[in-house]
Write a structure and sequence with these properties.
Blueprint (H helix, E strand, L loop, with lengths): L3 E2 L1 H10 L2 E5 L6 H7 L1 E2 L3 E2 L24 H10 L7 E5 L8 H10 L5 E4 L2 H7 L4 E2 L20 E2 L1 H7 L6 E4 L3 H5 L15 E3 L15 H12 L7 E4 L6 H10 L6 E3 L2 H5 L11
Parallel strand pairs: 1-6, 2-4, 2-5, 5-6, 8-12, 9-10, 9-11, 11-12
Antiparallel strand pairs: 3-7
């Protein structure tokens, strides 16, 4: 199964298949917007309370630490998702906030039948997918069994060790202005992790907001990785959410999935670590 699905493919699939459609849009008014209008049948998931376990001290794990597997199991159960469920997730940021995070979490617990809607809600509406303001009721299911996160992650100490190695690649997917240290609208300090390479997540998309072809994505990231061993590849963003967009792009390109630095810049910048800027 492809990691992504197009609006037209989704329109066709919902006619004949049982799909759990998930709205993972994240903004201060995301749930209110969902209540007013969402893709018909979609259930809402909250990145702050269901896809993260936010701590009072952001310096420990960053702004969006992963929840425990037990917490995520409850979220999936509440959404009516079982081991066999076909899940499609979307947001209004072309998959970057927070559909790709939900996809990564599901794949990381071993659930293969999950796709992100390429182009997001806007493209689906344009393609004629119906919207609704109805209260959607999930199917009642037994508890979803989750053992552990299976895909690679790296913590702050691991990052300390990584940047001391001779050969590594750390992809920072944030906007170039944030990477260069010209502006920082969210975290306390501007700049980037020493040695990091900036490939904004937006470069995964075409001019219409759809993911590039597997061939185009593969060419882009093979240049970045060159001969760096898989275990020395890291992807990060501000808080471990948007980074998953690039991990999704790598899955589309059928390239190995690097380590996700979940704490990302929000953790690094709060722990008295070296910071680089570009003038």
């Amino acid at each position: 199964m492809s990691p992504i699905i197009t609006p037209n493919q989704l329109l066709e699939a919902v006619q004949t298949n049982a799909i759990v459609l998930v709205d993972a849009t994240n903004s201060p008014t995301a749930y209110q917007n969902y209540q007013q209008s969402h893709l018909q049948g979609a259930l809402f998931v909250d990145v702050n309370t269901q896809l993260a376990d936010i701590k009072e001290d952001v310096s420990i794990g960053g702004r969006h630490p992963l929840p425990t597997v037990g917490q995520f199991s409850k979220t999936l159960t509440d959404l009516g998702i079982t081991l066999e469920t076909w899940v499609v997730v979307y947001d209004d940021k072309n998959g970057a906030n927070a559909a790709a995070r939900f996809w990564w979490m599901m794949r990381s617990i071993g659930h293969d039948k999950v796709q992100v809607l390429s182009g997001g809600i806007q493209a689906a509406i344009q393609a004629g997918f119906p919207t609704s303001s109805a209260v959607e009721a999930p199917t009642q299911v037994e508890s979803y069994p989750v053992q552990d996160w299976q895909w690679p992650t790296i913590d702050l100490q691991g990052m300390d060790e990584m940047i001391q190695k001779d050969h590594f690649v750390i992809i920072d997917v944030r906007e170039s202005q944030r990477y260069r240290g010209e502006t920082e609208p969210i975290d306390l300090v501007a700049g980037h992790i020493p040695g990091a390479t900036n490939i904004p997540f937006t470069t995964n998309l075409d001019q219409n907001g759809f993911f590039l072809s597997p061939e185009e994505l593969k060419e882009q990231y093979q240049k970045a990785f060159e001969n760096i061993p898989d275990e020395n590849r890291v992807v990060h963003c501000g808080s471990g959410v948007t980074a998953c967009h690039t991990l999704l792009a790598l899955a589309i390109a059928e390239l190995p999935i690097p380590q996700l630095y979940v704490g990302s810049w929000s953790e690094w910048s709060r722990n008295n670590r070296e910071i680089d800027v570009e003038n």
